[in-house]
Design a protein that fits this description.
The chain has 323 residues and is mainly alpha-helical. The chain has one domain: Farnesyl Diphosphate Synthase, CATH 1.10.600. It contains 15 helices and two strands. It has a two-stranded antiparallel sheet. α3 packs across α8 and α9 packs parallel to α15.
C-alpha cells in the first residue's frame, strides 16, 4: 500500500476516534487542532509498515499506529509550552492560539485518548508504550534542565539525550511494535538500528530549524531563541573563540523575552559561517548508513518483503528530509 493511502487510513481512524468526544465549549475542536494540521505522520506510518512487514493486517495495526501519532501530538503540545515555542506545523503553537491552561489540558486529554486506543492490546504492546513514554520524558528532562541551568553540553551529551527524547519513539518503538503486534519478540537490532536512525532524524530536524524556508512550518532559528542545546551548537562552541563562547553563553542564558534580535542574528550568522552544519550533516549521514546497514538484513527475512522495502524507504526519509 502506498504511503498516501496509509496516511489517509491512519488520519481517518484517528480523527474518527476524536470526533466521538464531546464538543461542549470547543473541547473536540481543541483536541483535533494539531492532528488536523497534518504533518508527515512518519511514526504512525513506520508502525503500519512494520506491522504489515511482519504479517499483521492493516486493521489490526491501526490502533497502535494511531496511538503513537496521538503520543506525538500531546507531547508536542506540552513541548511547545515548556519551550515557549511560537509556531507548530505552519500555525501558532496551541498555547498561543488558545489560553495556555486549555492547551495544557488538551495535551493531557490526548494522552488519555492514547491509552484508550490501546485498551484491547496485549500486555507487551502496552509495555512498549510505557517504555517510550518514560524514555521520552527523561530525555525531555535532560533537555529542559540544560536550558534552564544555562549549561553548555558536549556532542556526546547531546547524542545521549536524543537517544532518550527522540530516537526511541521515532524509530525504535515503531519497529518493535510491528513485531509485537505479530506476536513476535523484536530482535535487538531493531533497537540498535532504530536508535541510529532516530538520532539522525533529530540532527536533521535541528539542521532544518536553522536552514529551512518559512514554508517548512518552523520558526527561523527557533532553537536559538529557545536556547536549545543541539549538536550544531556543541560543534560550533568546540571551535569558537573564548569571546564567542562567552557571548553565546550570555545570550543562551537569557529567557526568550529578554533576548535581543540582533544578538540571535549574530549567533545565527556565526553558526552558518562555521563548520558546525557540515559536521552535523556528516554525522546524520553516518548514523543513517549505520542504521540501515543493521536493519536491512533483519527486515529482508520478514513475511511481507514489499512492506519491508517500503519500511526501509520511510526510515531513509527520516534523514533525507529537505526544507
Amino acid at each position: 500500500m502506498k504511503p498516501e493511502a496509509l496516511r489517509e487510513a491512519l488520519r481517518t481512524y484517528l480523527l474518527r476516534r476524536l470526533e466521538a468526544l464531546p464538543e461542549q465549549e470547543g473541547y473536540r475542536t481543541l483536541l483535533q487542532d494539531y492532528p488536523k494540521r497534518g504533518g508527515k505522520a512518519l511514526r504512525g506510518l513506520l508502525t503500519l509498515y512494520s506491522a504489515l512487514a511482519h504479517g499483521v493486517a492493516l486493521e489490526r495495526a491501526l490502533p497502535a499506529a494511531a496511538a503513537l501519532e496521538l503520543f506525538q501530538n500531546w507531547v508536542l503540545i506540552h513541548d511547545d509550552i515548556e519551550d515557549g515555542s511560537l509556531e507548530r506545523r505552519g500555525g501558532p503553537a496551541l498555547h498561543h492560539k488558545y489560553p495556555m491552561p486549555l492547551a495544557l489540558n488538551a495535551g493531557d486529554a490526548l494522552h488519555a485518548e492514547m491509552w484508550g486506543m490501546l485498551l484491547s492490546e496485549e500486555e507487551k504492546v502496552l509495555e512498549e508504550f510505557y517504555e517510550l513514554v518514560r524514555r521520552t520524558a527523561f530525555g525531555q528532562h535532560l533537555d529542559l534542565s540544560w536550558t534552564l541551568s544555562g549549561r553548555l553540553i558536549t556532542p556526546g551529551e547531546y547524542l545521549e539525550m536524543v537517544r532518550y527524547k527522540a530516537a526511541y519513539y521515532t524509530a525504535v518503538a515503531p519497529l518493535r511494535l510491528g513485531a509485537l503486534l505479530a506476536g513476535r519478540t523484536p530482535p535487538e537490532v531493531y533497537r540498535q538500528g532504530g536508535e541510529a536512525l532516530g538520532v539522525a532524524f533529530q540532527i536533521v530536524d535541528d539542521l532544518l530549524n536553522l536552514t529551512a524556508s518559512p514554508a517548512y512550518g518552523k520558526e527561523k532559528a527557533g532553537d536559538l531563541w529557545e536556547g536549545k542545546r543541539t549538536l550544531i551548537l556543541a560543534y560550533f562552541l568546540e571551535e569558537a573563540t573564548p569571546e564567542e563562547k562567552e557571548r553565546t553563553l550570555r545570550l543562551l542564558g537569557l529567557p526568550r523575552s529578554q533576548k535581543r534580535a540582533e544578538e540571535v542574528e549574530w549567533l545565527y550568522g556565526r553558526i552558518l559561517q562555521s563548520r558546525a552544519l557540515d559536521r552535523a550533516r556528516r554525522e546524520a549521514e553516518r548514523l543513517k548508513e549505520e542504521g540501515l546497514s543493521l536493519l536491512e538484513p533483519a527486515l529482508a527475512s520478514l513475511p511481507d518483503l514489499e512492506a519491508a522495502q517500503a519500511l526501509l524507504g520511510v526510515l531513509s526519509t527520516l534523514v533525507e528530509r529537505q526544507a
